[in-house]
Amino acid sequence: MTHTLPERPATADEAQPLLAVEGLTKHFPVTSGVLLRRTLGQVKAVNGVSFSLRRGETLGLVGETGCGKSTTGRMLAGFLPPTAGRMSFAGSELTGASQRDRRRLSRDIQMVFQDPYSSLNPRHTVGSIIAAPFRYQRISPPDGIKATVQRLLEQVGLSPEHYNRYPHEFSGGQRQRICIARAIALQPQLIIADEPVSALDVSIQAQIVNLLDDLKAEHGLTYVFIAHDLAVVRHIADRVAVMYLGRIVELASSDLLYSNPRHPYTTALLSAAPIPDPKAAGRSRIRLQGEAPSPLNVPPGCPFQTRCWKAQDICRSTEPPLAGSDPAHMVACHFPEGDAKAASESGITADQPHAAGELALG
Amino acid sequence: MATGQATAATAFLEVSDLRVSFPTPDGVVQAVDGVSFTLERGQTLGIVGESGSGKSVTSLAIMGLHSRRACNLAGTIRLAGEDLLAASPRRVRDLRGRRMAMIYQDPLSALHPYYSVGWQIAEAYRAKNTASRKSAWDRAVEMLDRVGIPQPDRRAHDYPHQLSGGMRQRAVIAMALSCDPELIIADEPTTALDVTVQAQILELIKDVQAESGTSVIIITHDLGVVAKVAERIAVMYAGRIVESGSVDRVFESPQHPYTWGLLASMPRLDRDRRDRLTAIPGSPPSLVDVPGGCPFHPRCPHVGATGGLCVTSRPPLHDTGQDHWTACHLDDAVRSLIFSEEVKPSL
Fold first, then answer.
1. Buried b (16+ CB within 10 A) or exposed e, A26-52
2. Which of B283, B289, B346 to mutate to test the interface with A (most CBs of A within 10 A)?
3. Is the ipTM reported for this complex over the cut 0.90?
4. A7 pLDDT band (50/70/90 cuts)?
């Protein structure tokens, strides 16, 4: 049995978020033993992540290694079942959906991976790689698969003659274009891009970022863009969620987050980003010591308290919720930057966070 | 064609007309094609380029780590006057570690998983110095302390897998420093690390250099890293240096269209957000088949301005004034005009 691509209901409820995530959690048990399996602990990769995404919006997920940004992306794409929490897409529940429903939904949610070398099967031709989504979904496009695939190749800036070539004949940037063509083949609504440009050379990164921008404008796509490069995320995202140890510590519109970061971790992250200007080298930098704790051993209270220069007793005992008077700028911190009231109550000089950072840790 | 002060007699490291090629079944890969530069004592040189630009191959050639059977080396590399390419393998081996040391990109594969980091550092030290096991171990602990590892006497017993990524890279740096080298080559030392840890490691390299007056070559694809730690910069493309000079000058008024392209294609936190990034069209050439003339000409927007010269003849690296070198056929005056009118506003 074959289907054609369903017509998209054009006036799908604009007010409703396309994607809503609530309390999303993923714990991986660490076990030992073969016959008598014992659970030694839990790797708390993602710990209660909540956000929603409007149609046509790009959400950037940033954070360092082990912060749970990729795990979040994989749960959204349906590759990993969450331990707890709910995800709904365009009004239908993703968590607990049957295999069959999930497969149908995967037409609308597609993923682009970081490494374009390992995400293409070297034994398949480009044509067969890009046609795979049609085969799996048993969809026959109106012009036939070959013509459709060739049109997709053109859309991503490749030539239709590449149809019969193999992945090894392409450079990294071209391979990433093939991956993107495969992701947009079924005209999905949401694309989850997990570090799509970080394996590419600087001059190629811009090409792929521009391609993603163009495709978004053309097809009205919604992106979850996962990356560690703060500058790329600022360029592409409308809203940014900063993650640390499996939690969102700050969620704000891109403009607000970069101009007025409120979580100490965000300020530290921004001040550590290398700037291609030798004159900027002398700018005050928050010298964060050490590295993030292992998600196997999440500290009590605020996850950032072990490295934070503002940490007080309350930070070590109570986890701050993601909140804020402005819904466009939420922060999970007891003593956020630019909050004079909280700072004066605790006797911290929030005005000079940099000096405070150097003093406490330098 | 030397960059820098071109004081051949006194330069600490002088590389001139270095060529490295690898014969492969697909043809000869000309990985480095006539690279020349000098490095003074205590100076930091940043070599920037994309994958396949020859930056790592250059550094391995300086360290004498290319197999003579697998590749062809030509040109000269002089370290304090001594030609390393003409020296015996035994002599190069003696110099390596003692006078020059290397920090690699991936600390996990640069460390042996079976031995504790202290043991590995002590081994490196004993290989080059006559020292008892005890004093070599003490040296290892001292080095771990110097690179900022807390409780170095305890951490020296740790195996690489017990350390975090940043700590491993510190251990690798400790090993490189153990014999007080005069030249350190760091090949993408922070690429595998997170941004907050990267900042720590770059500060460490700067501190170490300031303390000991070591010369440093830092190889990276990240212009931000170079701006942070280096005094001089060399931009490589397809096995050649296309631009070099002091970091201040090259970032202030870059001269080569490739450098313009690199700077314009990066989204920057210190600038306003742009609607669209300016990408360099095409992709870097295959080193089996480097385009004739200027290797950048197929991707260069200004190729038409020289009446075909870019396609037919290779531009020499020349001084445009104030020790700022570039390999581009555009007339210096024309290039300055293009930069100030077209390129600079878009950066």
1. bbbeeeeeeeeeeeeeebbbbbbbbbe
2. B283
3. no
4. low
